[in-house]
Design brief:
Radius of gyration of chain A: 34 Å
Number of domains of chain B: 1
Mean pLDDT of chain A: 79
Helix content of chain B: 25-40%
Shape of chain A: elongated
Largest sheet of chain B: 6 strands, mixed
Low-confidence stretches of chain B: none
CATH superfamily of chain B: P-loop containing nucleotide triphosphate hydrolases
Strand content of chain A: 15-25%
Number of strands of chain B: 10
CATH class of chain B: Alpha Beta
Largest interface: A-B, 32 and 38 residues
Helix content of chain A: 55-70%
Structural class of chain A: alpha+beta
Oligomer: heterodimer
Largest sheet of chain A: 6 strands, mixed, barrel
Number of helices of chain B: 7
Strand order of the largest sheet of chain B: 6-7-8-3-9-10
CATH architecture of chain B: 3-Layer(aba) Sandwich
Order of helices and strands of chain B: EEEHEEHEHHHEHEHEE
CATH topology of chain B: Rossmann fold
Strand order of the largest sheet of chain A: 2-3-8-5-7-6
Amino acid sequence: MAWRDAKASRARLLLFTASIILGIAAVVSIQLFRDNLQDNIQSQSKSLMGADYLIDIDETPNERAQAIIDSLNPVASEVNFVSMVAFPKNGGTKLARVRGIEGPFPVYGKMETQPEQASSTYQEEGGALVDATLLLQYGIKPGDSIKVGELTLPIVGSLSSMPGNSAVTSSVAPPVVIPNRLVAKTNLLQFGSRKEYQYFYKATPETDLIELENVIEPMLDAERADLDTHTSTSRRLGRRYENMGKFLNLVAFIALLLGCVGIASSVHIYIREKLKHIAVLKCLGASRKQSFLIYLIQIAGIGILGGVLGGGIGIGIQESFPYILKDFLPFDVEITITTQPIIMGVVLGFLIAVLFALLSLLNTWYVSPLQALRISDTSGSKKPKQAKRIVFTIIIIFLFLFSYWLLRDVTYAMGFVVGMLITFAILAGIATLTMKMIKAWFPKTWGYTTRQSLLNLFRPNNQTLVLIVAIGLGTFLISTLYFTKDILLSKTAVGDSSNSANMIMLDVQPKQTEAIAKTITDNELEVIDNIPLVTMRIHSVKGLDAKAEEQDSTVQIRGWIYNHEFRTTYRDHLMASEEVIAGQWTPEVSNDDVIPISISENVAEDANVTVGDKMVFNVQGVLMETVVGSIRMVDWGQLQLNFNILFPKGVLENAPQFKVLSTKAPTEASSAQLQREIVSNFPNVTIIDLRQVFTIVEDILGKVSWIINFMAFFSIITGVIVLIGSVRTSKHQRIKESVLLRTLGAKNNQILKISALEYLLLGIVGSLVGIVLALVSTLLLALFVFKEPFVPSAIPFLIFLPAISLLVLAIGLSNIRGVLSSSPLEVLRREA
Amino acid sequence: MSKILKINGLEKTYTSGAKQLTVLQNITFDVEKGQTFSIVGPSGSGKTTLLGLCAGLDTPNAGNVELCGHDLNTLNEDERAQLRNREVGFIFQNFQLLPTLTTLENVSVPLELQGAKQAAKRGMELLAQVGLADRFHHYPSQLSGGEQQRVALARAFSNSPSILFADEPTGNLDDETGEKVIKLLFDLNKASNTTLVIVTHDLDLANRTQQILRLKGGEIITNQPTVTH
């Protein structure tokens, strides 16, 4: 019976099936991609690192550190630093990451070079391996030469890939690999240069990396060195994509919720149309259980079918993710197809179909056989409140469990479910309020068509509540997605660079400052910034130095605080990217005062200090006592120099320091000219051309946006299906009314106006409320989930609001288009 | 007497799958202005289809309908609607009241569609005539079947139609209520001198009209005046 009935209702069940397919497809694709990403990170972490574990240190290791390093027997080592390189052949210059390598690196994975053997011969030959893209950009070939600092050496191969390099980092500072023994000849490792020493190790099968981490890490910490195992790298990498994962989970949650709303509304229409048949079946002797089961089996069957199809589509979609994101990830993602997504799709399809159809299915249980005999509308059959309550509770539990499964966090899951319930309640409240307001201030003197439209909004059988909730919920979910996308994208957004510097010169020695400034002005450019940089380390926090802190387990200070070499500056003003959130900023002090410094929010948190706490710094061997005067919130997303620790004027002027100069080169040619001059005269100076960074960041953002927009589009499609389903709820009733009006003499434009105004009002109210609610919820997400600032976009108001309102209008009018173009009896025959 | 409805060679067929189903053929008759006229026949004889064609609710495959001097074949859907709004009243077996409107609003709809300013006043007068003035603010779902049909009667006369079509007006009512409604229908009809066309299978009701047209299998069997008239 279930099969026979479903066969006859194929078209009506299509909306229902589509909702399930789309919802499941989104969840399956996103879950699979996330799992694949994690698996890949884990399995490829050795190749990413190039070893089982490594020790890194930002300065030449002292004796104790060197003893630890040697005792573990490194297979290879490197020193790397960022520097400008030049190509004598054509005078081209570029910022590059120079990696001076000694020994057979990498231990795992490989350096892909052209010619292939170059990766194993460059050390012997004393040549350089240069990033393949860089060679291409500058028209250089293996055999030409490269100048690194004061050293010129032959290029023996082009480097396509090597462990630890992503397309992003390579684009900003492409790798140039040289033999470690030649690094000294570059003369680039001077005071103030940012450099990193790395020692690579291969673990024996018996080595317990966690144990090793526990034993060696504290010893290395004391010597300002770090131990990284491939397992910790995999954890770190996982965290790097955490926000993207959170966003994709949000998309999955929203897509599935939209699917659920679609299921609920399409089953509602379906069952309502079937109630009379069910009443007849009951008259003929069908039990409540039998009539309930007929439709339950149908719904469950379609849920399973939708799950299988959705799972299949989900697999197809996730196959495309790695292709789109390949430049964003530092490794290749290999997609594996398993039976798990199909099982997940089927189970989820079954669950959501049955759960969200249950409220409507209850009608089949409680419908009276008498309704087969009654003329009146059959939609009003009463379900006991207890049954409704039970179904609602089950739905809420399911939503919570599903959110938890996606987010793996009880608080977030609770937040999501409570948020959805509040949204639902607000939408229902606003729908009721709208009806009450129209009723209270009904414009009795307005024309008939307008009055009839408004009457339809609050009179019996109105669809105001259902449509405002459905439209509002759909718009809310889609807009939340859009606003959230804004949060993620603005994190890396490139600020308006029209008035700011686009070239930054780092590592300028004090004695070079004047000459470089002159080079800039000689090129008819302006020196925008001349920032002093003083490197220092934290010696003690609140009287506790690193050793004391280590011995006192009650002290909550993060390890990096003592190990990090801070690059600080001093000035008498704050920048636009800084905001004091605690204490008071002191611009200048005289020599005898206590030194009130300003620290960034993250340092305050990790060093566990607040305003008034003492911090002692080691400035090139001299201990300097300071007190935390203020804590700043710093917008690190801005492409400019920001500082963790900021000193007032009058303290560090005489400390050893180097400078950062910046300028704005209006054209690419003027930028290239200046770079050439500075690199040839001051090889130690590093130039960052922000113009290139802007382009690269924009390119990456474009790709991330594509994924985000694609998934948002996916949700929008589901939303449209929900909308069609919701508007269709009243299709037959509206057609009947329109035909009757037509019979009584209503003209096309009168019927059109009545429907148009009603749907337009519903569309505007529903979508406006949805967008406003999305704004609030995204603000909460920004604060508590993403922990990022949120500047809302106007797009949802300018595009979503009119688009959704017009869509509701179009779907609404499409319901009655038959009435407008056909004779009344023809319409009634079709609808019968 | 002038003819208010002229039917000439009317034919209506429906397509059901690959098959053509002829519902009406060779239908020709006239209705005089002010006449009461009934169309009778067994179920499936084409009575309601004929009524729909006469009122311009559907279009014939062949033949033509002239209603109130207008050849319906020459009018488009809007023009036919306008003609109905001005000249025609309807009563349906299932009452067909708009569920979202109150009793008074339902009665006023034809006048509202014309843009008449006194629609509500005229609606109240008619509700009083059918004995439902005190129920003007009730919705159709709050009325009994007989009451709903009385509201439909009031609505049918609200635009002072030249011709009134009634499709099985007592089909959903018990005998007693049906009798009351029919009496009201004829009284109102007489008072407003409207032409009345009733589709029914109730021969007693048909016999109250001046002319009876009998249909069978989509064709006219007889078309003759009733004996009592």
